[in-house]
Description:
By secondary structure, this protein is an alpha/beta fold. It has helices at 7-13, 36-42, 68-81, 95-99, 110-123, 144-153, 176-185, 199-209, 218-222, 226-236, 245-260, 265-280, 284-293, 299-307, 313-318, and strands at residues 22-23, 27-28, 59-64, 86-90, 130-137, 159-165, 190-193, 213-215. The chain has 15 helices and eight strands. The longest helix has 16 residues, at 245-260. Flavin mononucleotide binds next to α9.
Amino acid sequence: xxxxxxxxxxxxxxxxxxxxxxxxxxxxxxxxxxxxxxxxxxxxxxxxxxxxxxxxxxxxxxxxxxxxxxxxxxxxxxxxxxxxxxxxxxxxxxxxxxxxxxxxxxxxxxxxxxxxxxxxxxxxxxxxxxxxxxxxxxxxxxxxxxxxxxxxxxxxxxxxxxxxxxxxxxxxxxxxxxxxxxxxxxxxxxxxxxxxxxxxxxxxxxxxxxxxxxxxxxxxxxxxxxxxxxxxxxxxxxxxxxxxxxxxxxxxxxxxxxxxxxxxxxxxxxxxxxxxxxxxxxxxxxxxxxxxxxxxxxxxxxxxxxxxxxxxxxxxxxx
Length: 319
Ligand SMILES: Cc1cc2nc3c(=O)[nH]c(=O)nc-3n(C[C@H](O)[C@H](O)[C@H](O)COP(=O)(O)O)c2cc1C
């Protein structure tokens, strides 16, 4: 997820069991072939012995663009650098991206989805899997199935469907039953995505979509134990207890240690607050900490505020 889930976050989130694979933030392709440094920045895992997080979870490299030739050239570049898969983004709703004809704007014409997927497949010589991620449409859902079929016909080996149109943004509800309509017509695996925040959401999304697998985005930031919670239930039929504040604080502390090795402290402080902001909608203690700490710019003071025992945040913030 762009601006939110970088290699350090992927590393932290995959230390617990639950994730089968992860995806990079999108690499934006306009026309030219991008230099290797752009790929390494988005996907430092390319430098490792395998395209995985340190815990061994595969990382898929995502491209976002509209011109088939440019996507193809950059897919070849990524392959040369060692990627083991390419994911194509047909879901991004950002105005800037859509104005430049990328992301979800391609969903207005299934032929363009097909052309992009086919060009990338052809360029990498079918040597690595090419997958796709889409929304249900741009303004409405009329072309949802046609776009999904186009991705499959272009050679996509898997399709993730975020169960909303571009114009629906992130507004609930996610229309998981629409993913079911697509899944029923495709032969490739279809993965359900959108608004899975809890084990109950996971059950509902699976039931309504009929999909075996789901993708979680914001839910994994809101509760870093959501994927382990789902995996634990799958394996044992039992529920894990709610994630305590101490575990959340420890994740944020580890995140800070990883980020401060490469980024200025004030940037790390804002990244911590960004993650805490994702946690606060689903956890009252995270909400209290966010309110108490949101104006703190000094990283050490912020970390002290996160580590303070419950009930003493305000004191830590003033210190
Ligand atoms: C801040 C932000 C950045 C995102 N960046 C990407 C991205 O780079 N590539 C992508 O395929 N989806 C991206 N998404 C969409 C998510 O992958 C996901 O489809 C969407 O948030 C719905 O799933 P969720 O409810 O589990 O978060 C982004 C979403 C957010 C909120």
